[in-house]
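Re-run with default settings, no changes from the original entry. Doing this only to confirm the output is reproducible before filing.
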Amino acid sequence: MWRRLAKEEDGIGAKFVEGGFGNIRGWQDIRWKRCVIKQYFQQVRQFKEELMVLVHLSAGAPARATELLSI
């Protein structure tokens, strides 16, 4: 999987990994940009919260907590 990450010069590899991929021989050598990863997961969480509200409001009868949280 890290090889797929390294193939994308301007994509996900450049966004989440510090430095280049020239010296990386395995996943242990990857230096992650922790603050960028943290921001990404905050955006994912915010999206999921907004999606949960939309499902709750637009899916007919209000969902029970077990149904809502399984989404």
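Residues 34-58 form the longest helix (25 residues). The chain has two domains: 1-32, 34-71.
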